Fold Alpha-hydroxy acid oxidase.
Amino acid sequence: MSTHAPVRTQDFAALAERSLPAPVWDFLAGGSGEELTLAANRAALDAVTLVPRVLTGGAGRTTGADLLGTAAALPLAVAPMAYQRLLHPDGEAATARAAKAAGVPFVLSTLSSVPVEEITALGADTWFQLYCLRDRAATTELVRRAERAGCSALMVTVDVPVMGRRLRDLRHGFALPPEVAPAHLDPAGTGRTHDKRAGSSAVAEHTAQAFASDLDWDDLARLRADTRLPLIVKGVLDPRDAARAAALGADAVVVSNHGGRQLDGAAPGVDLLPAVREAVPDGCRVLLDSGIRSGTDVLKALALGADGVLLGRPVLWGLAVDGEQGVREVLRLVESELRSALTLSGCAGPADARRLGVRGAAR
């Protein structure tokens, strides 16, 4: 740790970059292609400005919110992120413990390096993120496994028919070390994640073999019929897709471009957020993913119509720097920033944010 305590989540980024091998840092930090969308996510959020209210009385009383029936301490969930044991030996277990301590849901990836049963045993409110596999029976078994383990929601990612072309990983010939593997997939088929070859990504090659690349709306309808868990559809940008997902019974949609890691040149999620909010019924929750770095970013998302956000890379920065304690500190910083932003904008809590004036974004 630095002699100066981090005072914002980005301070953890600098510490994490210094502590990690370059290939691992680039796997964490990088985007696809020329990383245009990766940069655009931040530029779009930075361009949003808020019009605070004054003399409202009791501003900043609470940061709590309801997220799919969960009384969360913050209007956020920890985003699903793969292979967290790359960053710390405890991996997803450390992150889940920190999320539980912070009172927010933890979303566990299909590509977790720790199995779902070990995560739910820690007591965190756990949502399971699903990648649909070529083997449809294996996909169904993943859903059943998440249900048996006690997950409280299912989040299906729909924007990865194939993994985006991530140039940093190709330059490194990125592969997982022997001690890290996808805990939920067939061990006999995951050895290729460790096969390092110049100019290729072993992780991308593995997902190309494992993931279904031909998902359609019928698949989503079957998944909706196949589970009683709340269903969240992640990876939506077009309001027409959001509306169709809601019509098929999705309980929530996540406006996301996968953190700039899929289609390079895709629009920033925050730019589409207001239109998505208008396209879905009030009963369908809307979450924003991609580019969130601070409590002020959370407030901007709420003001533009989101019910909450997914927090991604900052959590991994904290994990890389100091394990569970690092993640706890990242979440504490976001909570402190959000409380300050709510107070200064005249909002008693997250529910008031939608009444704020917003500039610099489509509405």
